[in-house]
Amino acid sequence: MVNILVIDSYAVYRYGVVSMLKEHPEFRVIGDATNTSEAVAKLGELQPDIVIMDIFMPGGEGVEAVNLMRQKFPDVKVIVFTLSDKEEDFLRAMRAGARAYLLKSIETAELIESVHLVATGHAIVSPLMAFRLPEEFGNTNKQNRQGVNSLSPREKEVLYLVAQGASNKEIAAHCYVSPTTAKAHLRRILEKLNVRNRAQAAAMGISKGLLNEMSPPPKDTGGEPF
Predict the structure, then answer these.
(1) How is the chain split into domains, by residue range?
(2) Lowest mean pLDDT segment, chosen from 16-20, 59-63, 87-91
(3) Which CATH class name applies to 138-207?
(4) 109 conformational bin, left if phi > 0, alpha if psi -120 to 50, beta if neither
(5) How far apart are CA 18 and CA 32, in angstroms?
(6) Contact at 8 Å (CB) between 122 and 101?
(7) Class of 2-130 per CATH?
(8) 78-82 average pLDDT score
(9) What proportion of the chain, given as a percentage, has pLDDT over 90?
(10) Closest by alpha carbon to 83, among 12, 21, 2, 163?
(11) 65 near 53, Cβ under 8 Å?
C-alpha cells in the first residue's frame, strides 16, 4: 500500500487526483492540503510515501517547499504536478529533489503509471519536458562536461540503466552486485556529474548524447569490479 498526500490550491485538480487514485486499491490517499504551509505540517503528521503537489500555491514558494520536505523527510518522494512547462520551474524543482515533474495535460493513465514508477524508485519527467532537456542541459558548465567524460564504462552502464527507469534493486540484479553496492556507485556517478538525484543524472546523460551512443548493456557475468 502506497500512502499519498495530495497538495493543490485548486479544488478541481486536487479532488480530481484524489478521485483517480482512489480507483486503484494499491494507493491510499491519507490527506490533502491547499497550500504549502499546511502541506509541510501534514507531511510531518501523516508520514506519506509520496507527495503529489503543484509548485504554485498560497503560503509559500512551492519549490522551496519541495526542498524543505526533502530535507526534513528524506524518504518521501515528491511528484510535481503542474501547469508550468517552463524550463526554469522544471530545473528548480528537480534540483530541489523532486522525483517526477508531470504536466497537468497528461492522460490519467500516464499519471497513474508515473505514481507506480515513482513508488518503486524511478524518476519520471513529462515527455514535453524531456524533449527540452538537451537544449537546457547543453548549457551546463565545464565541470559537468568533465564529469560525464570521467565516467568509467561500468558507470556509464549504470547510468544507462537509470535512464531506462531501473531501480537500485534492478541495477544490482543486472550487475550481480548487492543493492548497497549499486547505491554506492550511483552516488559516485552523482558526484562526478555534480547533480543531486538520479533524474538529473539521467537527464545529463541524455543531453550529452551518452545514452544514444550505447546499446542496452548485456547482463554482467561477474568478475569485473565497479
Answers:
(1) 2-130, 138-207
(2) 59-63
(3) mainly alpha
(4) alpha
(5) 8
(6) no
(7) alpha beta
(8) 95
(9) 31
(10) 12
(11) yes
- Identify residue 162 by its one-letter amino acid code: V
For 137-182, the pLDDT digits (tens) are 444 444 445 567 788 888 888 888 887 777 888 899 998 888 888 8
Cell of 63: 519549490
Q: How far apart are CA 204 and CA 152, in angstroms?
A: 16
In order of 22, 80, 140, 185, 222, the CA distances from 158 in angstroms are: 35, 26, 21, 8, 15
3-class DSSP string for 24-80: CCCEEEEEEECCHHHHHHHHHHHCCCEEEECCEECCEEHHHHHHHHHHHCCCCEEEE
* Distances from the Cα of 122 to the Cα of 9, 10, 48, angstroms: 27, 27, 17
**CA–CA distance, 221 with 207 (Å, rounded to integer):** 30
The DSSP element (H or E) to which 2 belongs, if any, is strand 2-7
Q: Are strands 60-61 and 56-57 parallel, antiparallel or unpaired?
A: antiparallel
pTM: predicted TM-score of the whole model, two decimal places: 0.64
Of residues 120, 118, 66, 114, the one with CA closest to residue 91:
66
